[in-house]
Amino acid sequence: MAFVRVCALSDLEEDTPKLVEVDGTPVSVVRTGGEVFAINDICSHANVSLSEGEVEDCQIECWLHGSSFDLRTGKPSGLPATRPVPVYPVQIQGDDVLVSVTQES
Ligand code: FES
Question: Would you call 8 helix, strand, or coil by DSSP?
Fold first, then answer.
C-alpha cells in the first residue's frame, strides 16, 4: 500500500478539514482529538465536498443535507445518506502526514 505525503502535521488545525488529492482521489484530512483521519471528500449522497463541513465528536457533517460520517469508519449517522464514505489509513512520520488510498481502512 503506497503512502503519500499530503501535508505537514503542523498544517492541520484541530477540527478544520483540509482538502488534499492523493493519486487523483480527493481526500479530506481531519485532525481531531489528537488523531488524524482521512476520508474521501465526496459525500455518498451527492457530489458535495465534505471538507467544507464541520467536525464534531469524530464526525464530519455534510453541509448540504446534514448527514454526518464517522471519521473512523465512514459510516453515516443519519439520513439522507445511507452509504458509507471510504476512509483511508493515515501514518504520521515526524511532522509529515501520509495517506494511502490504494486500500480502504
Ligand atoms: S449531499 Fe451530503 S447529505 Fe446530501
Answer: strand
61 alpha carbon – ligand 1 mean position (Å) = 9
Identify the residue whose cell numbers are 464514505. Answer: 85
Query: Quick check: CB of 80 below 6 Å from ligand 1?
Result: yes
3-state secondary structure of 31: strand
pTM comes to 0.95
Q: Given its phi and psi angles, is residue 34 left (phi above 0), alpha (psi -120 to 50 degrees) or beta?
A: left
Pocket test for ligand 1, best of 51, 52, 65 (most atoms within 8 A of CB): 65
Mean pLDDT of 25-41: 97
What is the DSSP secondary-structure string of 47-78?
A: S-BGGGS-EETTEEE-TTT--EEETTT--BSS
State yes or no: pLDDT of 61 exceeds 80.
yes
Gap from CA of 52 to ligand 1 centroid (Å): 12
pLDDT at 26 over 60: yes
